[in-house]
Amino acid sequence: MKSRKVATGILFWLLSISLPAQIIGKKIKEIKAKEIKQVSVDRLGNFFLVFKNGVIKKYDANGSVTASTKGKITTQIEPWYHPSIFIYNQPKQTFSVLGRHFENEKITPLESTWAIEPILVGPSNDNKLWIFDKADASLKKVNQFSTEVLTEFYLDTVQFKTPPLFTYLREYQNMVFLLDSNSGIIILNNIGKQINKIEKAGIENFNFFGEELYYLNDFSIIFYDLYSEETHELKVSGENKFALVTDERIVLVDKKNKVSLFDFKPN
Asked: Which pLDDT tens digit goes with each residue over 76-98?
């Protein structure tokens, strides 16, 4: 019996050194900011802050501002498909595509036949657009160059116990994600079948790290594997409203709009 306990202990020790835990390292910088409305991150680890006054700033991994723009009504920002930066302006129903330093902006109005109330618009990975129409709870993929509707399907509205408040739309790895801040994150495949739903009210944003979706939950960042559906969490300090994860940084925005950058060593 004693030898079995020793062997089990050695096994757990070997697992612990072969599978190192994800850890947050030391804080490397703090940024004091005015009210932050949105955050995002691109493939290269640059992060973006969208402020209430319309200013958008792009920061590198060390927290230095590398580009900024003013006066943008930003319903949604999507810089993932580097080097382009996509911005949707819902009140004007226009979308903009800018260069990586916010240069050479091209503003395009949405085709009026696509949607009655297009509250969310985001790019696809093949340079098309996803549009969520609040009027009929429909999600469409359109070709903005030919105005053709490529895919159209409708959400199952029976699932909502309270009226949904959709605030974010994203395509990632051939899946479509809709954030309802009243109930959670709806996950669909690219032909409209609902795959899963992360039931959690109050999520303000989510993003992706490899094959995982992540979001803030109280004092933890929750990571959800898109394929195994397994979850794990990373403890963080303070009361935060936004979190971003890259392969070298954790960026936290607290409820007083203080931005903190930490070293990060993922598995």
From this structure: 999 998 789 999 999 999 999 99
